[in-house]
User: Which sequence fits this backbone?
């Protein structure tokens, strides 16, 4: 029987109050549909073998070491990457293993098929959405892709009434958008019922 | 203070609160780990295992176990600071700041995957020092009874530390860890069946974990009804490996669906002999837990059906 396996580029334990009040472990998936100019984790792209394959069970066994902290502090796992929403089945299986006591968070761009978001939405507690910019031209310029899927998925989340489970990151992207673009993004998101925002400036890294 | 040491302090405080909430004698010490501190080290991990053991014991004797409700955020606010990028209140806009989203260090080819999180916390450190200095709670004296190694991996045998709180001291001393009692991480003892939970060397399946998985895959027979109805399952089987390497008394400790339990037990009973666990230079009976997966056939992308679009491999090779 073939196992569901995912490429994981890194696991960072004991993150404190990064995603809510709890102790969390970041699990970063390999693979992302976007090619952002200021990507923080470019090792999530390409096929450089800088990853290890895990089954949900292996990941559960490895992360369970911090279960006491997770349960005591309402913490758990934050799936990032890369794009975690490319591995909905893996995350669903992980939820079945860890049970309901762990918080599962996603750091996602939402630039994935709606079926993927539909599949993960019921099993995750929080979504941290890196929206880039709501303007399609700016988005394409910065990421290389259309944001059509992002908008579809935002509507999906809004229709499910899960806006309050989302923290939307609206970055100021040097050389790509401006303060007024960012304000425009925020207004569009507010119109959909999202009201938790994190506004910050992308740091330009030299790789 | 290095970020790892800050994390260490906060985790220690969480452990202390868990112990306090459950009436567990908890005893800790200044961390003596000399390597790069990532926030946890063999000694800290041993304290977690100790708490888990104590909580299990409480649970077995029917006592209530209080776990939830400790806020790492509150601990941060109260003086053990680290980074904080908590979700903001409604409509509140943060001031601009350098991005502190997570950067994951690269995995070296074939290397271990536990990586340091490289989020910068430097902006918080100045406040910590002030608050700690104001609190004037410092360790004056550390008494070590028994042996303790400075270098990892530290075998937690016979360690008994007692620490006294002292008078306010210099700022330099104020960075030390405040402690509340005493911890005894003693030697490992077998349970009433003569089986150890914690050993120096765990039992090993001949050929390693991959061989064990291969054995499971080859021998498992999917229950017909579940196969027909497309039901999958996962079963956790606990057993002990005796000093001859034999698999003894397998039992289900967690299962998604009882329909899979008998088949999981049957396959575990077929296991060849393991290399026995070792403790203190001797072969000992040792507990082991394995997971048995009941998965329906998948396609090349690792997904069960085409209804979920798993796109990782579509994109991973195009850069």
Assistant:
């Amino acid at each position: 029987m073939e196992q569901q396996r995912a490429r994981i580029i890194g696991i960072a334990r004991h993150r404190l109050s990064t995603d809510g009040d709890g102790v969390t472990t970041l699990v970063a998936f390999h693979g992302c549909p976007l090619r952002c100019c200021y990507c923080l984790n470019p090792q999530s792209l390409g096929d450089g073998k800088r990853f290890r394959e895990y089954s949900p069970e292996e990941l559960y066994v490895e992360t369970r070491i911090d279960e006491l902290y997770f349960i005591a502090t309402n913490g758990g796992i934050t799936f990032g990457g890369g794009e975690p929403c490319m591995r909905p089945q893996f995350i669903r299986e992980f939820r079945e293993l860890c049970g309901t006591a762990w918080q599962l968070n996603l750091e996602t761009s939402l630039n994935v098929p709606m079926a993927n978001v539909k599949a993960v939405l019921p099993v995750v507690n929080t979504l941290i959405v890196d929206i880039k910019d709501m303007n399609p031209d700016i988005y394409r310029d910065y990421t290389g892709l259309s944001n059509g899927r992002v908008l579809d998925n935002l509507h999906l989340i809004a229709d499910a009434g899960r806006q309050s489970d989302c923290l939307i990151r609206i970055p100021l992207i040097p050389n790509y958008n401006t303060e007024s673009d960012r304000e425009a993004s925020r207004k569009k998101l507010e119109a959909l019922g999202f009201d938790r925002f994190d506004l910050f400036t992308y740091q330009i890294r030299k790789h | 203070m290095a970020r790892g040491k800050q994390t260490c302090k906060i985790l220690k405080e969480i452990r202390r609160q868990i112990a306090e909430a459950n009436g567990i004698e908890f005893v800790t010490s200044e961390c003596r780990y000399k390597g790069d501190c990532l926030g946890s080290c063999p000694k800290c991990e041993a304290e977690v295992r100790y708490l888990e053991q104590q909580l299990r014991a409480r649970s077995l004797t029917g006592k209530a176990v209080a776990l939830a409700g400790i806020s790492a955020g509150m601990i941060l606010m109260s003086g053990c600071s680290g980074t904080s990028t908590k979700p903001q209140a409604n409509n509140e806009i943060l001031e601009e700041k350098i991005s502190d989203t997570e950067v994951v260090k690269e995995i070296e080819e074939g290397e271990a995957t536990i990586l340091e999180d490289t989020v910068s916390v430097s902006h918080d450190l100045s406040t910590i020092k002030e608050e700690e200095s104001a609190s004037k709670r410092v360790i004056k004296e550390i008494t070590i009874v028994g042996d303790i190694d400075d270098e990892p991996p530290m075998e937690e045998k016979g360690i008994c530390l007692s620490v006294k709180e002292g008078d306010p001291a210099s700022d330099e001393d104020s960075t030390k860890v405040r402690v509340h009692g005493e911890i005894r991480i003693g030697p490992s003892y077998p349970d009433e069946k003569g089986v150890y939970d914690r050993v120096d060397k765990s039992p090993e399946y001949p050929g390693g974990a991959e061989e064990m998985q291969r054995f499971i895959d080859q021998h498992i027979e999917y229950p017909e009804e579940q196969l027909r109805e497309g039901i999958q399952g996962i079963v956790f089987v606990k057993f002990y490996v005796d000093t001859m390497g034999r698999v003894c008394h397998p039992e289900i400790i967690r299962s998604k669906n009882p329909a899979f339990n008998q088949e999981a037990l049957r396959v575990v009973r077929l296991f060849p002999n393991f290399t026995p666990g070792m403790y203190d230079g001797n072969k000992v009976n040792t507990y082991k837990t394995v997971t048995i997966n009941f998965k329906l056939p998948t396609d090349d992308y690792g997904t069960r059906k085409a209804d979920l679009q798993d796109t990782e491999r579509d994109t991973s090779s195009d850069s």
